[in-house]
Amino acid sequence: MKDADVQRMFRQLDLILNLIQETRREMNLLKQGGDHNADDPLIPNRQLAEILDLRPKSLQYYRKKKILEAVIIQRRVFFRRSVVQKFLAEHFNQKDKLCNLNI
Fold first, then answer.
1. In this structure, are 7 and 45 located in the same domain?
2. InterPro entries attached here (predicted)?
3. In which domain, by residue range, is 22 found?
4. What's the pTM?
């Protein structure tokens, strides 16, 4: 291996380490701060879309309209379980499911 290759590899490893440390800091802040319980798990965007049988674009629309609050970590979107349960109670547990969603 050339010295340039080794240096490039170490720079990439430093970038990876920095991303890991930043993610850990953000996760610790989420656990400590806010009015949410630390035991409230985060659900990934794609998994929630599958659970609710929605397109990820629909979840994006709900986030944009502030109907469904999301947590963004490293450009990945997550939803707290309590927020999803509240959303379902308000919008899907009614007789006319789609009238409140404005779709």
1. no
2. DNA-bd_dom_put_sf (IPR009061)
3. 1-33
4. 0.57
